[in-house]
Structures are given as C-alpha cells and as structure tokens.
TrEMBL record, chain B:
Keywords: Membrane, Transmembrane, Transmembrane helix. GO terms for cellular component: plasma membrane. It comes from Geodermatophilus sabuli. Residues 123-247 form the Anti-sigma K factor RskA C-terminal domain. Pfam families: RskA_C. This is Anti-sigma factor. The chain crosses the membrane at residues 121-142.
C-alpha cells in the first residue's frame, strides 16, 4: 500500500488517510485513487471466493459502486478506507452466495413441480448462507472496540491474547467483548429463527 | 467441578485452545457444550476463509473500472497503467463489458448428479489460483519455435496446498492449426492413483481432461480441436484415485493460468 509513487511524478498523491477523507467528502478523484490502491485487495477477496471470472468481477464492481453511493456511511475517524471497502466486499460476497442459493432453490422447486413430486419438507435452505447476510449486517451495528475485536477473531484468526497484544486492550476486556458479541450474534439468529417460524 | 466461565465458553466457540482444567470440564459437561454450540453458529457463519482478511491482491480486468465509472458517473480515472495492469500479456480477447450475468441455475439434479460434488471441491481449491495467476503469466517465453510448432500460450504451474508439485505447461500450435499441450511436471510418485491433466474454465465449473502425466516427467497431450483456450485457460493437475470415476477428484496439486 505504500508504493504508489507512480511515473506521474508531478502529480501530488495524498496518503491513504487523505484519500479516505476525500472519499467520504465525495471527491470523485478519491474514488479513482481508492480504486488504484485497493481494487487489487478487493478483487483478490472476490477471486478467492468465486474464482476468477464474472462473479468475482461483479463483486468487485458492486463493492466500489456501493461504497461510492453509500459513502455517507463511511466514517474516516472509525477506520481506514481499505478496511471499510473490505467490509463492503464481504457483504457483496455473502449477497452473491444468497442469490445463488435462491436460484438453486427456485430451479429445484421448478423441477419438483414439473415432475409433480410430492412436496418435501420445504426447500433446503442453506441456513449458513442466510446467517451470513444477517450477521454481517449485525456486525455493522457494533461500535468500537467490539467490532474491531471480533473482526480480528473472525477474519484474521487471532486468539484473544493476540488481539489484546495487537490492540493494547487488557485480556479481560477482550474476552468480555468477545463474549458479548457472540451473545449478540446468537440473539440475532434466535430472533430471526423465531420470525421465520412465527 | 465448577462450570466454565461464560468468557471461556466464548473462546471455546472460537475454537481457541483452553486451559486443561476447562478442557476436561467441557469434555464431560453437556450444559457447557450446549452453550458453546449455541455461540458457535455465528462463528461458523462468519469465520470462513472466503470472508477472511484480504490475501494476495489480484488486479481486476479493465472492464471492472469501466462499469464502475458508468454506474457512478465519475469522470476521474485511475492511472491507466494501474487499470491496464490486469491485461494479460498474451493475445487474449478483452473481457466483455459489462460483465455477463450470473451463470444460470444448475441443471436439474437428474441430469448431472456428479456435478455438485465436483464443483464444490474445485471451488475450494480455486483460491490458490490467485497465486498461479500472478506468477504463471509470462513466466515462459511465448513465440518459441519448436519441432512441434509455435508456442502460443504458456503457464507456470504452482503448487496447491503445499503439495510440492510444480511444473510448466506450454501450448504448441502446428502448421495445420492443431494444438498440443506439453507439460513438464515435478511431483512425487504416487503409490495409488495417477496425475491427470485438465483444462478448466475460470469459473472452475467446466473442464476437459487431456490425459495422464507422471510426476517427474514430460508429456505431450493433444488439445481437443475447438476448445477455446481463452475460455479454458486454467491448466490443472489432479490426483486421481483408482476408482474408475472419470470425474475430477477435486484434489488438485498444481495449477497455472495460460497466458
């Protein structure tokens, strides 16, 4: 991320933090800079999830489009722009999984109907697919430092001791935040389950 | 023995190693186990490799920026060299703009029952493609004249999942337009099974089997006429068990992307 001193030597290049502030302010050049610097990371995630091809490209494209149109939701003081873009990308990946899952079930239902198969116990919903969309939304609602802590645990696979070392927070604080966040996610899923079966 | 603390059970849900005393208690306590399981559903949903922090960067093809610019109306542009960095070195047709819609839903299960198994396994390995895409492109000089024709595409094959296997593939085109894939594979000898060579599409969904190769050997395989290598640019080497199943085992040891 540090080497973007391109051949265009005379054009002053702001640092990442400045790009983040200008992005939030809606300066169009900041979208281009953000793409120059972070599209590779975002696309790398998309390719990891879907392999190279149209799905990954769609995720990368939608990530930047949503980030731009939703830039009011980005708060530079809460974290760097690339981390926020990565969060948006997670949503797009989860949304793509959910869309595929819906398509699969629609296709299966159509086949069952065409074959006049007796109705089974309902379409096989991949609950993890739905859970992901729901819980990523719940993560967005977390304040700091809870959000940063659980992201380090989930997405960087750090232990609570490593998180404490990384953040400088006391071990006990990290543990209790992890506990409360996992409870919160559990509650969110229970509420959703209850709504489904109401 | 007292129950584990709520914080400890949360760490157990994250699959962190616990102190021995907690481990011992948890092994025999249904109540604590149930608590861990209930907290784990959220962990299992989100702590998956596909959502993990970014790994290796992959430059998106230029069409991605075009689509973003079109959708947002933004006229500022990234430096052309950055956007163009994703253009393959070889004469590959530029990707279409805008990206095509999602692939159609899978065909009814009665038609292709083997397919879901294959795709799922391969998708898991698709992540490693990223490495190959970066290293493979351009690693072999194109245009070399050979007895068997002109090298029109090449790929360095990089190991998947620390398999230790690696190799080099080049596509040679003869004067009459027919093509061969020459593969030089360095890989451990297999006691059971064999290495099979595939051409796979970028979605890692469809593929052609080209034939069998020995680890530590070079082989020349015919490329089926009419197969578009820009659509099937991934050279994949799998380990196939002696089970008589013609479908890709899902266990790939080396891959590269033709460029």
């Amino acid at each position: 991320m540090s080497s973007h001193a391109g051949p265009t030597g005379h054009r002053p290049e702001p640092d990442d933090a400045e790009v983040g502030r200008r992005f939030a302010a809606g300066e169009e050049q900041a979208l281009a800079w953000a793409y120059e610097r972070f599209a590779g990371q975002v696309h790398g995630m998309a390719v990891r999830a879907f392999g190279p091809g149209p799905d990954a490209e769609d995720v990368t494209q939608q990530t930047f489009i949503s980030a731009w149109t939703g830039r009011a939701g980005y708060r530079p003081e809460q974290g760097p722009l690339p981390a926020w873009l990565v969060g948006v990308c997670r949503h797009k990946i989860a949304d793509t999984w959910a869309r595929r899952d819906r398509q699969r079930r629609t296709a299966e239902a159509a086949v069952a109907q065409a074959q006049s198969a007796p109705a089974t116990a309902g379409p096989l919903v991949d609950s993890a697919v739905a859970d992901r969309v729901l819980l990523l939304g719940e993560l967005d609602l977390l304040g700091q430092p809870q959000r940063g802590i659980i992201e380090l645990a989930f997405f960087e696979d750090l232990t609570h001791a490593q998180i404490a070392a990384r953040t400088g927070l006391p071990l006990g604080t990290v543990k209790s935040h992890i506990r409360r966040t996992l409870e919160r996610l559990r509650t969110r899923l229970e509420v959703d389950d209850a709504a489904l079966h109401a | 023995m007292p129950h584990c603390t709520p914080e400890t059970l949360a760490l157990a849900a994250l699959r962190e190693p616990l102190p021995a005393v907690d481990d011992a208690h948890l092994a025999g306590c249904a109540r604590c186990q149930a608590e861990v399981a209930s907290l784990q559903r959220g962990v299992d949903a989100l702590a998956v490799p596909q959502l993990a922090a970014p790994g290796p960067a992959v430059p998106p093809p230029p069409a991605v920026w075009s689509a973003i610019a079109a959708a947002t109306g933004v006229t500022a542009t990234p430096r052309p060299d950055v956007v163009a960095a994703a253009v393959p070195a070889a004469p590959v047709a530029p990707p279409p703009v805008p990206p095509p819609p999602l692939p159609p839903p899978p065909a009814p299960a009665t038609v292709t029952t083997l397919r879901p198994r294959r795709s799922r396994l391969l998708l898991a390995a698709a992540a490693a493609l990223v490495v190959g895409a970066g290293i493979g492109a351009g690693a072999v000089a194109l245009g070399d004249r050979d007895d068997d024709g002109l090298t029109v595409a090449a790929a360095a094959l990089d190991p998947l999942e620390e398999s230790g296997a690696s190799g080099e593939a080049r596509v040679l085109e003869r004067g009459d337009g027919t093509r061969t894939l020459r593969l030089d594979l360095t890989a451990a000898d297999l006691e059971d099974g064999f290495y099979e060579v595939w051409l796979i599409d970028e979605a890692v969904e469809d593929m052609y089997s080209l034939g069998v190769v020995q680890g530590g050997g070079e082989v020349t395989l015919e490329v089926p006429p009419g197969v578009d290598l820009t659509e099937f640019p991934v050279v994949d080497v799998s380990v196939e068990p002696l089970d008589g199943d013609p479908v890709h085992s899902g266990v790939s040891v080396a891959r590269g992307v033709l460029a």
